[in-house]
Write a structure and sequence with these properties.
With about 80 residues, this protein is an all-alpha fold. The chain contains five helices and no strands.
Length: about 80
């Protein structure tokens, strides 16, 4: 299991799978941690040595997993869940 899954389980005592919530890739977690910043997607990519298209893909995946329609909603949901 990844660090994010382990942290969620510690906080919430969930079972083995967290359907639709598990950010199972390190890069997604790294992008998620930068979403609250003032950095745009290109700048996030530069910070993480990723292409802007890769950042966009990770953002889409993050939004879907957090049932968020925007960056602000994703950040809010991640904070509610203790992921940020």
């Amino acid at each position: 299991a990844d660090d994010l899954t382990d942290a969620y389980r510690l906080c919430h005592g969930e079972g083995d799978r967290l359907p639709g919530l598990v950010l199972d890739r390190y890069a997604e977690l790294a992008v998620l941690r930068l979403l609250p910043s003032a950095l745009n997607q290109r700048q996030i990519g530069e910070e993480l040595f990723l292409s802007v298209n890769t950042v966009k893909t990770h953002c889409r995946n993050i939004y879907a997993k957090l049932s968020a329609g925007s960056r602000e909603q994703a950040v809010g949901r991640a904070r509610e869940l203790g992921l940020l």
